[in-house]
Design goal:
This protein is an alpha+beta fold. The protein is 16% helix and 28% strand.
Length: 576
């Protein structure tokens, strides 16, 4: 018999793998411990390099490996099965990682974290003893995840093993040093998180001007060294070189690349609304750097907008969030709008004319473009023929708000540049009028106060919840809270309760997928979107199917969500 939510698994001579589906296109392999998980990751990496495994991404974690790609999707759909035992036997070999001969990396820490007293209480130690024990150990980086530069550091004093917070913080300062389970970690930049904070450091964990960018890499030895406030080693405001270089939150869409070849200023923004970002289809395949794919929140709308104006699907666009948007054209352009619907006008020498979603339109130098707040949906995609010119980071111009990668937000006064060379190359590409198709998409957009149904596949940690929890997940309307962003949709409703066996359990960090519904101990779920962390430590009850993720990305605050839980055959609303 196969446990509900699990897929068939195979065993080698001395190992056993618990294989679980993760949405439509991924598998989570639970290996039982860290050493086996790292060994399996190495074996699967070799198999992929040898052509024996068709997988795009592998994410190692505390005791699991997440696989995403063609072979994983085929197994989820029942069209094939990955022989993990056979791959282990063929590729594992000597997988014990050799200890590094490089010097230990010292991380200076001011031990004044917000949770230091609570850690002392949880461990039965004094705060002085917590600090003494934390800096007395010699550590090793086991793996990286969550965000670029975030290392899961093992080897600490067993007395300092503490659970994550019952409810994660929405914002943790960069440089914060935390504990979770048997791991220590340092947050590379400001981000949400649930680790117990015991101190802070100024030492940058991630720096794109450094090769490699991550300071702490798997296998590296680490030592935490206590310093006093004012010593200068850890007392300044923590930062990363990436954020400092780009002026995070202030940089124009051009990222300062005003002299970029084959580009010209296309628009001068007067009003960027509450959140306007440069996006493309992201940077997949970089999990080994701790980097998630990110990219456009509504991928379908991005592709459609680019096709409207004759661009390649991968061209960079503007993703316009809440509020109005206003800009002046600096040259003749062809623009296209998709996604969230909002009334708009172009005002020029001939007067004002309306803008239609799904219909490409021309603007001339001096024309004023005005888009009012969205009537349905949340994010509107604005494409410019030729594609937006913005500096690329790790092969993409997408802005990853969690990782701090890509151009800064577009703000009032920002120049938006266009790739003039791409315009010349695309002169034969026809623009496409798709008003009818976009009208059909608009009819499905969520609205504040209205209900939107999202289909969900169970797992991978559905065994942490009983039938009553799944009934509560599917039966109620969840409210989208104002704390939602590109990282995830934060929902409010009747809390989801874990089974008695897992009520006080701590889940070791494991890989996450776009669409995962993570449930912290407080029971209020978070639906992860484009900028989700690479790994996380709260159980995922289910994953929204890929076909519904673009709609999830359009949920405005105040919208209502109902989940339709699918059985293994894909039938809606069936709870098993």
């Amino acid at each position: 018999m196969i446990r509900d939510g699990a897929l068939p698994h195979r065993s080698g001579s001395d190992v056993s793998f618990d294989v679980r589906p993760v949405g439509d296109g991924a598998l989570l392999v639970d290996c039982g411990d860290l050493a086996t998980a790292l060994a399996l990751h190495d074996a699967l990496s070799r198999a992929r390099d040898d052509g024996a495994l068709d997988i795009d991404e592998l994410v190692p974690a505390a005791r699991t490996v997440l696989l995403r790609g063609r072979d994983a999707a085929a197994q989820v759909a029942g069209r094939g099965e990955i022989g993990f035992a056979e791959l282990w036997d063929a590729y594992a070999g000597e997988t014990v990682r050799a200890s590094t001969s490089e010097p230990l990396i010292d991380v200076p820490v001011v031990y004044d974290g917000a949770d230091l007293d609570e850690v002392a209480q949880l461990t039965g130690l004094s705060t002085e003893e917590v600090v003494e024990r934390h800096q007395a150990a010699t550590y090793t980086v086991a793996f990286t995840g969550f965000a670029p530069g975030f290392a899961y550091i093992t080897g600490g004093d067993p007395a300092l093993q503490v659970p994550r917070r019952s409810s994660p913080r929405a914002r943790i300062p960069a440089g914060s040093v935390g504990l979770a389970g048997s791991f220590s970690g340092v947050y590379p930049r400001e981000s949400p998180g649930g680790w117990q904070l015991i101190g802070r450091t100024e030492t940058p964990m991630w720096d794109l001007d450094r090769e490699p960018p991550a300071l702490l890499r798997p296998g590296a030895g680490v030592r935490f060294v206590a310093v006093e406030p004012g010593d200068g080693a850890a007392d300044a405001a923590p930062h990363t070189a990436t954020a400092e270089r780009r002026g995070a939150g202030e940089a124009p869409a051009s990222g300062g690349a005003v002299d970029a070849p084959d580009s010209a200023v296309a628009l001068r923004v007067h009003d960027a609304g509450l959140r306007c970002l440069v996006q493309d289809l992201g940077r997949p395949g970089l999990a080994h750097l701790g980097v998630s794919a990110s990219g456009a929140a509504d991928r379908g709308a991005t592709r459609r907008a680019n096709r409207l104006v004759g661009n390649d699907d991968t061209a960079a666009v503007l993703e316009i969030g809440m509020g109005a948007f206003a800009a002046r054209a600096e040259r003749t352009l062809v623009l296209g709008l998709t996604g969230a619907t909002r009334p708009g006008t172009v005002t020029g020498v001939a007067g004002a004319r309306p803008i239609r979603t799904g219909v490409p339109f021309r603007v001339d130098a001096g024309d004023e473009v005005l888009l009012h707040p969205a009537e349905a949906g949340l994010r509107t995609v604005l494409a410019i023929r030729g594609g937006i010119a913005a500096p690329e980071t790790l092969g993409s111009a997408a802005t990853d708000t969690l990782a701090g990668l890509g151009p800064g937000p577009v703000v009032s006064g920002s120049p938006v540049r266009v790739r003039t060379g791409a315009i010349d190359a695309q002169r034969a590409a026809a623009v496409q009028d798709d008003a009818d198709g976009e009208a059909r998409e608009a009819a499905r957009l969520p609205r504040s106060g209205d209900e939107t149904v999202l289909r969900v596949r169970r797992g991978p940690r559905d065994d942490w919840f009983d039938d009553a929890a799944f009934a509560a997940l599917a039966a109620q309307e969840w409210e989208v809270t104002p704390r939602s962003d590109r990282v995830g949709v934060r929902l409010a409703g009747e809390p989801l309760v874990r089974t008695a066996a897992y009520r006080d359990a701590e889940l070791p960090s494991e890989g996450l997928a776009r669409g995962a519904i993570q449930v912290p101990p407080a029971g209020q779920p978070v639906l992860f979107l484009a900028d989700h962390p690479l790994t996380g430590g709260y159980p995922v009850i289910g994953v929204v199917i890929d076909a519904d993720l673009d709609r999830a990305a359009q949920l405005p605050p105040g919208a209502r969500v109902r989940f339709a839980v699918l059985d293994s055959a894909g039938t809606e609303g069936v709870i098993r």
